[in-house]
Design goal:
With about 130 residues, the chain is mostly helical. The chain has one domain. It is about 95% helix and about 0% strand. The longest helix has about 45 residues. The protein is elongated, with a radius of gyration of 19 Å.
Amino acid sequence: MIGILVLMNNYFHDFAAGVVFVCGITMFVMVDLAQKHLSREAKEIAIGVYPTLVHIIGGATIFMLFAGVIRTFTYKDFEWANAVGIDQVPAIIVKHIVVGAIFFYGIALWIKSHKKIKEIRKELKG
């Protein structure tokens, strides 16, 4: 039973990185289009949707931290031992590089979007 829970934790940990990536892209594209569209309605929609995407990204990031702690403590017994036995260590290394890259790219897009949202809010107030 513990093995199944650890396996699910590991899958959801990787899935959360994908959620951050997709929400980051969605947020960036939405805010960028709102800025380029120049209509007040498009900008208000972007400002309205932005907090929801921030909560999703924030929640996924917090989940990744907690799931990562569990994964760290169980990694040697549940993931590493199986990978070494069938020579999959290079695949695990590549997987972690790819998952890390998409996670940090999603965070970078969130930061860029936040700067643009600040500009849009100033523009709508003034």
